Amino acid sequence: MSSTRSPVVTRPNAWRATFASFLVLPALALGLFNLPVAAQEAHVVIPAPAAELTETGTSAVAVFAGGCFWGVQGVFQHVNGVRNAVSGYSGGSAETATYELSSSGKTGHAEAVEVTYDPSVVSYGDLLHIYFSVAHNPTQLNYQGPDRGSQYRSTIFAVNDEQAATAQAYIDQLDATGRFEAPIVTTIEPLQAFYPAEQYHQDFLTLNPTWPYIVVHDLPKIAALEAIFPDAYRAEPVLVGSL
Questions:
Q1: Disulfide check for 112: which of 1, 45, 59, 65 has CB 3.0–4.6 Å away?
Q2: Residue 105 is assigned to a structural domain of this protein
Q3: At 151, which CATH number?
Q4: Which phi-psi region, left, alpha or beta, contains residue 215 (left: φ > 0; alpha: ψ -120 to 50)?
Q5: Distance (Å, whole) CA 23 – CA 146
Q6: 225, 78 contact by CB (below 8 A)
Q7: 203-219, pLDDT tens digit by residue?
Q8: Any domain includes 46
Q9: Who contacts 7 (Cβ-Cβ below 8 Å, separation ≥6)?
Q10: How far apart are the first and last CA of the chain?
């Protein structure tokens, strides 16, 4: 992707984000977003997985869905050991793997992020830890923030049975802790295919840090990643456009 800024994109079913734009822009001008992350969005501090997935080699893939892919991609791009994080679609057919069609919520697709990582640096369990803690709210099934519809569902697309079993064990572990205010509703689906999203969606958080939706919903996730996972955080994200 080129270094030019992405075009303006209005997220479907996001009237609250549109309304927030009128509040956020003056706040940006006044510097009011220099607030601690806790003042903007709460994130749950949770234990790491008790059971870890055994992996070998230097490259593995995981696919996560949790609301708008801008923020999920942005979080994993800031994780040490992640080699690439691509926004895209999973759960439906190739013919409907577009932003326009998937936004209907009728294609079976979820906005998802394909994470390619080095297991010798960051484990699948580490990624799950971050996913459930700061990347999204796992107690919200078919919505995140202002976004509504099954295309924004909380889903782990498991590459294999081992990933599925590790993810389910962690969900059971987290539910038992009672750290969340409601039960975890994240589903686990076998990965059939992953389709990269349109170019203008890639690296959207990094290229548009003052876009109101990003300021309100996604930058707090990056701040939480740095605060809660300082050893995993890296300041310079790995970008799709730089590969």
A1: 65
A2: yes
A3: 3.30.1060.10
A4: alpha
A5: 15
A6: yes
A7: 999 999 999 999 999 99
A8: no
A9: 200
A10: 9
Q: What is the pLDDT of residue 212?
A: 96
Confirm whether 101 is domain-assigned.
yes
Question: Number of folded domains in the chain?
Answer: 1
CB atoms within 10 A of CB 237: 20
pLDDT at 164: 98
* pTM, rounded to two decimals: 0.85
Q: Is 108 a catalytic residue?
A: no
Q: Identify the helix (H) or strand (E) that includes residue 152.
A: none
Establish if 47 belongs to a structural domain: no
Map residue 61 onto helix, strand or coil. Answer: strand
Per-residue model confidence as pLDDT tens digits over 127-178: 999 999 999 999 999 999 999 999 999 999 999 999 999 999 999 999 999 9
What is the extent of the structural domain holding 165?
15-36+57-242
* pLDDT at 27 (0 to 100): 38
Spatial CA neighbour of 150 closest among 4, 12, 8:
12
Instruction: Give the active site residue among 53, 63, 68, 207.
Output: 68
